[in-house]
Write a structure and sequence with these properties.
With about 400 residues, this protein is of the alpha+beta class. It is about 30% helix and about 20% strand. The strands form 4 sheets. It has an 8-stranded mixed sheet, covered by helices on one side. Helix 1 runs antiparallel to helix 3, helix 3 crosses helix 9 and helix 7 packs across helix 9.
Length: about 400
């Protein structure tokens, strides 16, 4: 079986596992499907012949491929097991489209479809093999494509006795909800630097990301019959609406791009007696990140002073991850090696900031440089997710080339 067929077979096997993570979970893995996939991969790694394979109780799978030359560095490769909670990942039914001819792609028998009118990148995929969904679930290319690419690269390195550096591998749970890395056994993952294989289009090389935090603001009111409410009712929903109106209207995800930060009201739920607003706080600049958190703190203090409240508004802010750039810039070889490998493979590197985060951001906060490399997928977290098999091949080639170049 050619490695392209192996790559496709692996990917289709992996997306059959329902590994959607669960928001607000307290323990990791947040869902049992992630652990099932980790156990499956554990056996696959043993079959390949990797060493030091360990699956922790938190669903973190690590393994080691020793170098086959002397004095080689150690490089990590990381992908996450879970899929986004934003869209169902249960009973994924992928469709493989050979030699895409252009135009719209119907997803299953429903009303969902992909069109180059909405997704101009599809024009670049004519003639290639695409994998799409049936329109009822996401595909799971984020990040099962990354897992399949790493596993296939390991297989190629070993089967063909390609000179390579030491390789540490990690498959992690709950990346989509920012939970799994809290339990990461960093002492079992000693590397000179690492890469997450978790990006999008071919050529993406990312080593800057948002500083990120979440905020929950809870408002308390007093309910009673509306017929006798005058001067006595206090509506928590009304206070929450007034609070939201104080935020800058143009500093939201739908009106920002590149390195512009934002506030994002991600949920609004409750009733007259208790209402909760949940926010995402994002900024590439740490000083700007600090100012955004202070803005919410000061706004809560202002409402608590001015409003006639039965209970003070409650605020909880929790940092999620920090910008990895400060760590990556101390290890320029991590970016240089990826650049050279892509160029060797005929790919133009696309250096771009991540308007989000990866497990690499957590590792960078612990001192391990960890840029992010493309998988070849598009439209992550949605029913319109798709991936190109030839793009996945490019990711495999870049990974194997990096491991070979690092050994030279």
């Amino acid at each position: 079986m050619q490695y392209t067929d192996q790559l496709l077979e692996r990917f289709l096997n992996y997306v059959a596992f329902d590994t959607q993570s669960k928001p607000k979970a307290k323990t990791s893995p947040s869902t049992q499907g992630q652990l099932k996939l980790a156990k499956y991969l554990e056996q696959e790694l043993r079959t390949l012949g990797l060493q030091d394979i360990e699956l922790t109780k938190h669903g973190i799978l690590t393994a080691f491929l020793p170098a086959n030359i002397e004095n080689a560095p150690t490089i990590g490769l990381i992908a996450h097991l879970d899929t986004s909670p934003q869209c169902s990942g249960k009973n994924v039914r992928p469709e493989v489209i050979r030699a895409y001819r252009g135009g719209d792609i119907a997803l299953g028998i429903g009303d969902e479809y992909l069109s180059p009118v909405f997704y101009p990148f599809m024009h670049q995929l004519v003639g290639k093999t695409l994998i799409v969904t049936d329109g009822n679930t996401l595909l799971g290319a984020d990040n099962k494509a990354g897992i399949a690419e790493i596993m296939t690269a390991l297989s190629l390195l070993m089967a063909n006795d390609i000179p390579h550096c030491n390789v540490r591998v990690a498959f992690t749970p709950d990346e989509e909800i920012g939970l799994g890395m809290q339990f990461f056994p960093l002492e079992r993952f000693p590397c000179d630097w690492a890469y997450t294989i978790d990006g999008g289009e071919v050529g993406e090389l990312e080593y800057e990301n948002f500083n990120a935090a979440s905020a929950t603001v809870t408002f308390y009111g007093k309910s009673m019959h509306t017929g006798s409410a005058k001067g006595r009712m206090l509506n928590a929903l009304t206070i929450a609406c007034a609070f939201q109106q104080c935020f800058p209207s143009d500093e939201v995800p739908e009106k920002t791009e590149n390195k512009q930060g934002f506030f994002h009201l991600s949920s609004f739920h409750g009733d007259i007696e208790k209402t909760e607003l949940c926010y995402l706080i994002r900024d590439f600049d740490y000083a700007g990140f600090t100012r955004r958190k202070a803005f919410i703190e000061e706004l809560v203090e202002s409402f608590n002073r001015k409003e006639n409240l039965i209970r003070p508004i409650k605020l909880e802010i929790s940092d999620s991850y920090l910008n990895m750039y400060d760590t990556v810039k101390k290890v320029p070889e991590s970016v240089q090696l990826a650049d050279r490998a892509m160029q060797q493979c005929g790919i133009t590197p696309l250096h771009k900031p991540i308007r989000g985060g990866t497990d690499g951001a957590w590792l960078a906060a612990k001192g391990l440089a960890c840029p992010n490399i493309f998988t070849g997928g598009y439209n992550f977290h949605s029913k319109h997710e798709l991936i190109c098999l030839e793009n996945m091949q490019s990711a495999v080639e870049v990974i194997t080339t990096m491991m070979r170049m690092a050994a030279e």
